[in-house]
Amino acid sequence: MQISSVEAIPIHRELDERIAIAQKWISSREYCLVRVTTDEGVTGWGECWGPVAGNREIVEEYVAPWLEGRDVRNVEQIHDDLVFKLTGSYHSYTPASVVGGVDIALWDAYGKSLGLPVSDLLGGRRRDSVRAYATGHFWTEVDDFETLKERVVAEATGHVDAGFDALKNKIGFQRHPDFPWGWREDVELVAAIREAVGDDVRLMTDANHAYDLATARRVGERLSDLGVYWLEEPVRPHAVDNYALLNRELDVPLAGGECWAFEHEFARVLDAGAVGVTQPDVTSAGGLTSTRRVATLSDAHNVQCIPHVFGSAVALAASLQVLATIPGEPMLEFDRTPNPIRDDLAVDPVTNDGNSVPIPDAPGIGVDVDPDVLDSFRMD
Ligand SMILES: [Mg+2]
Questions:
Q1: How much distance in Å is there from the Cα of 329 to the middle of ligand 1?
Q2: Which residue, among 360, 367, 369, 334, has the nearest Cα to 119 in the 3D structure?
Q3: Whole-angstrom distance, CA of residue 230 vs CA of residue 77
Q4: InterPro entries this protein is in (predicted)?
Q5: Could you give the CA distance from residue 19 to residue 272 in angstroms, rounded to a whole number?
Q6: Which of 37, 221, 254, 375 could make an SS bond with 247 (beta carbons 3.0 to 4.6 A apart)?
Q7: Strands 166-170 and 129-135
Q8: Contact status, residue 173 vs residue 179, Cβ threshold 8 Å
Q9: What is the pLDDT of residues 29-45, one digit of tens each?
Q10: How far is the CA of 279 from the centre of ligand 1 (A)?
Q11: Roughly what angle, to the nearest 10 degrees, separates helices 240-249 and 262-271?
């Protein structure tokens, strides 16, 4: 099961309508996929977090020559060696997204070589389907807050009509120059969703680190009164001490993890009591290897791991495999924003069955990439 080639495949698609979160507008979706091929002709797919730029060059020029000739069965050792190599070379920058893309591709190839789903190799399946929450409710171009609120509430009731009983929306207007509102409108938006969907729907909200500490406290107190299930990324990810403070003070638990990588970063977060929910992303936290380790570490701290997912069909498939293995009651973050690469790249797209999503048991990560669709998305 020797690795014979490692390729970086950049893909991109403009969106019909741009959408916004506290930090930015999103007008396209873009990914650097990783394709590993073994000497037996088995292909494994992975996905890096973030822009293609940087990921592609490091995968192709720096990692591929080092990786070729190694055995996919040694995936965890390769993961650790790769983290060591990249940390030595790039120091504090350590491109975790590259580790993520390569690690997922290796697990996929390993599983396919054995004819087993990756969940079997990660310690075995605890579930064959997983509760899913609808992530969305991003902001669109509007002239006034009332229109935005109406659109977001309509989206929320649409998800409930589609069977979801857990939703997540975006707050943090003050951080975005094109949305001239503040924390009061953030709270008003969540209150409007709560009123529309009722108390039985699990409601989470995500500030994408828009706040200073005092604003986070003001918002968090009010979200607690609205029965919000978690407040995600209220402050900047490096401010672990602020997370710990807020997580102790507020009734609403904090969630975070999409900007943290590797088990050693999550160990610091968990030791500090900084979150009630950990959210490693397979593409940015160091792949399936690190995500599974973070889930174990979280469980040891009595903290639920609920991975972050906001990728293509490849990241979604990989996330489902690790979700099959996570202790407790994880949920799938099921991105419902418009994304042709998530919906069309796989021959069999992932869909919800009411409030849950079935976890594939096909070999590897269980994704069958459509070659013609892939070609239509390629940037190179
Ligand atoms: Mg988030």
A1: 19
A2: 360
A3: 35
A4: DgoD-like, Enolase-like_C_sf, Enolase-like_N, Enolase_C-like, Mandel_Rmase/mucon_lact_enz_CS, Mandelate_racemase_C, Mandelate_racemase_N_dom
A5: 34
A6: 254
A7: parallel
A8: yes
A9: 999 999 999 999 999 99
A10: 9
A11: 40
C-alpha distances (whole Å) from 355 to each of 83, 104, 133, 330, 333 are: 37, 27, 7, 13, 12
pLDDT of the residue at 208: 98
State the catalytic residues.
Answer: 308
What pLDDT was estimated at residue 266?
A: 98
Output the domain CATH number for residue 352.
3.20.20.120
Q: Hey, which bits of the chain come out as E strands?
A: 3-21, 24-38, 43-48, 129-135, 166-170, 202-206, 230-232, 254-256, 277-278, 304-305, 332-335, 356-358
CA neighbor of 270 nearest in space, from 244, 306, 290, 250? 244
Residue 378 lies in a domain: no
Report if residue 248 sits inside a domain. Answer: yes
How far, in Å, from the CA of 233 to the mean position of ligand 1? 7
pLDDT at 360: 97
Asked if residue 153 lies in contact with residue 193, where contact means CB atoms within 8 angstroms, the answer is: yes
- The CA radius of gyration of the chain, in Å to the nearest whole number, is 20
Burial (0-12, 13-18, 19+ Cβ within 10 Å), 74? middle
Q: Report CA(194)–ligand 1 centroid distance (Å).
A: 19
Locus of tokens 């995936």: 75
Residue ranges, the chain, pLDDT below 70: none
Question: Could you tell me if 145 and 27 lie in one domain?
Answer: no
pLDDT of residue 93: 86
d(C-alpha 94, C-alpha 272), whole Å: 23
Cross-strand partners of 254: 231
CB 357 within 8 A of CB 366: no
Give the range of the structural domain holding residue 320, as residue numbers without chain letter.
Answer: 125-371
- The count of other CB atoms within 10 Å of the CB of residue 20 is 19
Structural domains counted in the chain: 2
